[in-house]
Amino acid sequence: MRSKDFTSTRFGALTTKPLSAWPHPYFLPADIPRELALEPETVAAMSRADLALGRLSGLAMIIDNPALLLGPALAQEALASSRIEGTEASLSEVLSAENEDVPIENENLREVANYLRAIEQGTQLIKSWPLTLRFFCALHETLLTGVRGEEKSPGELRKSPVWIGSPNARPETARFIPPHQDDLGALLADWERFVNDPSGMPTVLRGALMHYQFETIHPFLDGNGRIGRLLIGFELMHDNVLSAPILHISGYFETNRSEYYDRLQAVRERGEIDEWIQFFAAAVEHQANESAGRIRNLLDIRERYRVQVRGERSQVAGLIDVLLENPVVTVTGVVRALGVTQPTGSNLLHRAETLGWVRSAGRWGRGGKERWVASEIWHAVTRTSFDDDETR
To answer: Which controlled-vocabulary keywords does the entry list (predicted)?
Structure first.
């Protein structure tokens, strides 16, 4: 790190451990502030984000079964957050893999699948666990088990220094060196108090400070970015702002990846907290509005499809919810979801094809199973065609 870049000590300072074996300076963050004087533009940005979250929360409350509309959204969140860290996969591959009843061989898809499992795990744990070290270590173990990074102590705090920079960076050339491992205990204790103690601080501000501090502490050898982004959604659930992880915030961070990293670093180097909070609030506002629009579109599609088959004696109506949960399906997936025979599952998909709900998308994966894609639902979720996604 270049000491001359760190011109503010408002949120921490460079320091060293003279008596340790680690000779390099590192950044020791200050405790998370419980009060902040913010610029009017920042307050306005937070207000817009809070309003967008309120609209999204209200819309989610009218859904009779929110889980039906979570599948593709969670897959997008898992994919975007993993892509930020270099994972290469497409949404169609991720959703297709969910239909497989065999272990996933592709390393990239396993990483995304682990992220999805961590979301599901956290959604259950947050009902009874506070947002503490125990909580995010459990998610970290799920995230890194059986994938790249497994050798980096899944579920355990790091016991050695880390540094951030280019793939071949050394401590001398790193852009950022997080706090020494000996400082983690005190820093995480303050983080836990901040996210769990009652506070009158606006939700968006709490989320921005929580995420900044977690990424700055960098408590693990690997997976810090993904866990930190997971925690944004779980804090919203913890604070009773959202009832489910329906805010796909990593999509905004992926699209604006360079600015995302630069804004975090600018707080450390120059104390630019307003700029970071404005960026974070813009991400929340944009993604909350996008999520609300997606839910409205999916509810409209579900109602139209139900009207189409009202009175039919087959089980094709039951296929609607299966397609909403995952718009890329196989006969095997339909059989598993509806508890029908293989011939019945095939007949239901062909009936859905005549209704214009699905089309064949060719064969994929082990054994070359035929995939069927619900194109209208796919477009409502992604705003792209299925074929566009295949080429990414």
So the answer is: ATP-binding, Nucleotide-binding
DSSP secondary structure letters along 336-356: HHHT--HHHHHHHHHHHHHTT
Which residues are CB-neighbours of 42 under 8 A, at least 6 positions away?
274, 277, 278, 281
Q: How far apart are CA 206 and CA 189, in angstroms?
A: 16
Predicted confidence (pLDDT) at residue 102 exceeds the cutoff of 60? no
Same domain, 271 and 334: no
Tens digits of residue pLDDT in 42-73: 999 999 999 999 999 988 787 766 666 667 77
Residues 23 and 79 in one domain: yes
Q: Give the residue from 259, 293, 327 where a domain finishes.
A: 293
Is 146 annotated to bind ligand? no
Contact 47, 283 (CB under 8 A): no
Domain residues for 339?
315-390
Task: Give the single-character DSSP code of 164.
Answer: B
Q: Phi/psi zone of residue 339: left (φ > 0), alpha (ψ -120 to 50 degrees), beta?
A: left
Q: For the CA atoms of 220, 223, 229, 235, what is the dihedral angle to 10 degrees? A: -40
223 annotated to a ligand binding site: yes
| Per annotation, catalytic residue among 218, 238, 248, 286 | 218
CATH number at residue 32: 1.10.3290.10
What's at 292, amino acid-wise?
A: A
- The question of whether 218 is a catalytic residue gets the answer yes
The phi and psi torsions of 244 (rounded to 5 degrees) equal -150, 160
Amino acid code (one letter) for 188: L
Residue 336 marked in a binding site:
no
Nearest to 228 by CA among 214, 246, 245: 214
Give residues with Cβ within 8 angstroms of 106, minimum separation 6: 89, 93, 97
The pLDDT tens digits for 209-226 are: 999 999 999 999 999 999
CB-based contact 60:236 (threshold 8 Å): no
66: in domain: yes
d(CA 210, CA 191): 7
Backbone φ and ψ for 115, nearest 5 degrees, come out as: -60, -40
Provide the pLDDT for residue 391. 44
226 is known to lie in a ligand binding site: yes
